[in-house]
Amino acid sequence: MLPYTAYLRVYQPLTAFPSAERAYWLEYAESPERPRRAGAVAAEHRESLRRLVAAPPRPVPEEESGDAYVRRMGGRTYICPWQTRLRSWLGLREFRTETPAALSPAYLPEAVARSAEDAFRRWRDRGEPLRTHILGSNWTVPLPWFAPFTAEERCLVLDGGADPAAEREEEAGPAGAAGAPRRTAPRVLLYVTEVSLARERLERAVAALQENIGDGPLLAAAEHLEDWLAGVAHPDALLELDYGGLVHLLDDERLREDESAAEISAAVAGLERGEDELAVAMYRRAAQRWKSVRALERAN
Hints:
It is built from eleven helices and seven strands. A hairpin with a 2-residue loop joins strand 2 and strand 3. Helices cover 48% and strands 14% of the residues. Strands 1, 2, 3, 4, 5, 6 and 7 form a seven-stranded antiparallel beta sheet that branches. Mean pLDDT is 89; it is low at 170-184. It has one domain. By secondary structure, the chain is α+β, with helices and mostly antiparallel strands.
């Protein structure tokens, strides 16, 4: 069972990387040995578990990952590096901040945690970038994450269905040759769009919130997302929202009925047109759906 985590990923075009990295990622994308999209989250999870059950545990890998998520669209190859080391450091920092000091050693020995933090401090002091290509959210999808997408960009695959995301990934690749078996996937719900479109939609959402709602957690989250995209994404990049392990918390009917992106889009449009009742109704519908999912974190 995968973690109950959703992911927001930026896929950069190969041209966004320096020449040496570009050559590496091009070779990586063509390799038949790399993890495919359908199994990449599970591969990340296995690698993390191996480190955490070691004696002593290793919350952060010694070297940065050389793996990535790969997409092919419109004849172009896009790369989303895993950045496992950086994401582990940032995750450890968040864990240490949110977990009471008395409880933290029950999960991770204090000496191990301090050693990892010291390594992160040395790495950060060298001026290395702190932005990741992947954001994660446990037990829920933050509502601002839906603002960059439209309902038409939604892709739902239930058990045993053909995986169009996997088929697009392999387009023009060695595993996508004529006669290759049609790939099937476990249940998945995701959205994919161009970053240029995502930023336009986010800009509209932020403007609507600023004008009609004002300062608050919703506006702050939308502005943070806008800043993240502006800082990490190439203008020709792709943005993907993947429900990840959250699909295991929802049955097929609830996944079919989940139109969160359409509801958030309607809420933004309602704010822009001064239709407050519509905006509130659409926002509450999406918020209630994810409140009920988030509540499962504390279910017995």
